[in-house]
Amino acid sequence: MPDERDGEMTLNVTRHFSERSKGMRASEVRELLKLLQVPDMISFAGGFPNPETFPAEIIREIVNDVLKKDGGQALQYGITEGYAPLRECVAERMRKKSIEADKENVLIVSGSQQVIDLMGKIFIDPGDTVVISAPTYLTALTGFGSWQATFESIPIDANNMRMDIFEDRMKRLAKRSNPPEIVYALPNFQNPAGVTMPEKNRKRLVDLASDYDFIILEDDPYGELRYVGEHVKPIKSFDDEGRVVYCSTFSKVMAPGLRVGWVVADPEILKKLIISKQSADVCTNVLGQRIAHEYVVRGQIDPQIEKIKKAYKRKMELMLQGMDEFMPEGIKWIRPEGGMFLWVELPESIESDELLKKALKKRVAFVTGKAFYADPRDGLHTMRLNFTHPADDMITEGMRRLGSVVNQEIVSKWDRSKESEDRKIEDALKGSLIGKS
Questions:
Q1: Residue 399 confidence (pLDDT) above 80
Q2: Where in the sequence is the domain holding 21, given as residue range(s)?
Q3: Domain finish residue from 299, 316, 342
Q4: CA–CA distance from 258 to each of 59, 249, 303 (Å)?
Q5: What single-letter DSSP state applies at residue 2?
Q6: pLDDT for 259-315, tens place per residue?
Q7: Which residue among 45, 179, 370, 428 is least crowded, i.e. fewest CB within 10 A of its CB?
């Protein structure tokens, strides 16, 4: 029934919302992006590529050429599977990564993030379990969560997901009436922690998928952004049963605004993904697909990746130098080999929520770690820093500001702790004197 307020009838719209929508939550990262509009704010909060790396001039030339040559088709609806020449290009690049694929195994999607939603749609019933790392990509939580999934969280270490804990957990979960449907993995420079899964763990994960009958969603948006060490074969390259669904994107190596990604999957799974996508957006941005295809076939993509890697490696090193220079003892961080993020562990006396409030007053922003956990009670003393978006000089200045805030917070906590201890001693002495009297 409508509510009556001051003689007027107002709609109580919340009662019309679905049960599924009631569990949806806003992205904390997206909310923090509003801070980019604040003057003098240095933001390490977003996951943005740096716009200075975008090949705007080359894309302008491609758009002009495509529209002159085939503007009618480039601006028309496309097939859901995606532009066939682009799918061929993607399949060829996948084969170079040791993933057996042809264009029939490739679906072009509206950014690889769409794959999370489509996978939830075709595999998850309310209450089904998705196994994730802890921490994990925020949109995996919101995406699978919107399909009313439950989560089983596996702690990480320097080698990404803890496989010893994972295997023990799967033995227990396999005995339930509804064992896990999907294991979500970010094997390369994981968002948010920046850790990489070694090859032996990737092989083991595929073996366990066969043993315990689950599907692996391998999300690889950062795989090309390696600055140190050698590339590791994708999880999908060890898959001989069609259990691994691999997805990636042009967002990090060309331009995120194109919203063009892809998924490689077994034909039976791909068919369901295509049907699900038809009801989501009909097809991926056709002009964006044509741009991506031309960019690849003109030989621009690999030089672009090298340019990005050079810029981001420099930015990562600047942030690591800032951590070394400005952070006090007791702060721990993971030194990534690539990607876009630095993961920081604070002392247990400092909660990142409170630290963020003080950091914002100093005009520096980050994302609190709890946003990346299924259980909001976890990650209270952690934070994620993005090093790819800020200008070089802003990274150094931002680390100086953040280091100052952390130092002040540690001193403040120590002073309060000492004051509390002194008070306890005074109370004890008073009690002792009273007893003697």
A1: yes
A2: 3-54+303-417
A3: 299
A4: 10, 10, 19
A5: -
A6: 999 999 999 999 999 999 999 999 999 999 999 999 999 999 999 999 999 999 999
A7: 428
For position 407, which CATH number holds? 3.90.1150.10
Structural domain count of the chain: 2
Q: Are residues 44 and 61 in the same domain?
A: no
Work out the burial of residue 209: count CB atoms within 10 Å of its CB; fewer than 13 is exposed, 13-18 middle, 19 or more buried: buried
3-state secondary structure 344-387: EECCCCCCHHHHHHHHHHCCEECEEHHHHCCCCCCCCCEEEEEC
Phi, psi of 91 (to 5 degrees): -60, -40
**φ and ψ of 245, to 5 deg:** -105, 120
Considering the domain boundaries, does residue 433 fall inside one?
A: no
Residues 355 and 409 in one domain: yes
| pLDDT, tens digit (0-9, with 9 covering 90-100), for 135-169 | 999 999 999 999 999 999 999 999 999 999 999 99
d(CA 319, CA 337): 13
Q: Tell me how far the alpha carbon of residue 19 is from its chain's centroid.
A: 26
Do 158 and 203 lie in a common domain? yes
